[in-house]
Amino acid sequence: MSVPLPRRGRRSGAQSTRTLILASARKLFSEQGYDAASLRQIARHAGVDAAMVHHFFQNKEELFAACVKLPADPREVLADVMVIPLAGRGAAIVRTLLTFWDSPVQPALLALLRGVVSSRAQAALLREVLSKRIIGAALADLPDDGTAGLRASLVASQLIGLMVSRYVLKLEPLASAPHEEVVRVLGPTLQRYLTGPLD
Amino acid sequence: MSVPLPRRGRRSGAQSTRTLILASARKLFSEQGYDAASLRQIARHAGVDAAMVHHFFQNKEELFAACVKLPADPREVLADVMVIPLAGRGAAIVRTLLTFWDSPVQPALLALLRGVVSSRAQAALLREVLSKRIIGAALADLPDDGTAGLRASLVASQLIGLMVSRYVLKLEPLASAPHEEVVRVLGPTLQRYLTGPLD
């Protein structure tokens, strides 16, 4: 077992600069949206040099992920789903979400979900992640007939409902249902939202 | 405009007794569940006479509703839904929920939803309301083939997802979609959860 080094002034200075940048980023991302808020603006708001932002965060995506405390890179999780042909993606999405939640990252995901629902700023941040990063990527290959946006928010609504009822409210019997049962009952819903007739 | 009377000692004494009873009720309802927690236990926990509980709350249901701060009596809201034949109830449930939310009670409902997701005790309380009062009543006439419980929690999952994504996260285009569009796209999902094949 390694003995932790005593904290130095420099270390805690760096920590507080990082915290300052994160606070400014959260504020600007939620006020202006992910696209509009620039790294330069965030640096200026935090009162630091733009190079300092790059010292702590490789790019805007990494800064954003740190803001919402995502326990994993959404693109990696989505990669598993995107290789599934669209016709079977409804079930695949449910299976991926359950595997992701019923894993050691569950506490982090619960904290994220709680924060998002209870804080307006966190909700604005997650709306950005959901619309721009997660849903956008997952639906990139949907036919563009003008329904893609609605389909995306319908998928999100059932997934969010599954997360809240199974993991937060723990509504039985859904909360204890085996993965394959949940996939069987919710898969067709998501499949219809993705590719079926909406009426 | 009427001038408010100055607060008297007796008034604030009554207020704090009521608050004490509510705090004990919240604790016992969430620890033991609605059925197991008795008014007598709640009174004892609050250090007041059982008659005092009845002085403030007509019955256990009323005390419970005050605990979770429901902005309306679920049975009254449900009454409109229960007169709809089961075959058309999916759409009716979505329509009732939207009418209820897009009304002056929305801030109270938002506060309830935020509290439920961010606090474990509030979640336990709402689980009780949902399972015992709301879902139980709404599904009373479902065929009893062993799937009623699962059907109920699936209905709850999509409704909760609709509330969180439309009213908390404000995910577009679902957030601004007219009622009838939401009814058209979500009605079939709820109808399948209620009466359709689950696979």
Outline:
By secondary structure, chain A is mainly alpha-helical. Chain A has ten helices and no strands. The longest helix of chain A has 24 residues, at 9-32.
What's the CATH superfamily of the largest domain in chain A, by name? Tetracycline Repressor, domain 2
Number of domain modules of chain A: 2
Which two protein chains have the largest interface (Cβ within 8 Å of the partner's Cβ), and how many residues from each? A-B, 43 and 43 residues
Q: Give the radius of gyration of chain A.
A: 19 Å
Termini separation of chain A: 61 Å
CATH topology of the largest domain in chain A: Tetracycline Repressor, domain 2
Ranges of chain A where pLDDT stays below 50 over 5 or more residues in a row are 1-11
Query: H/E element string of chain A?
Result: HHHHHHHHHH
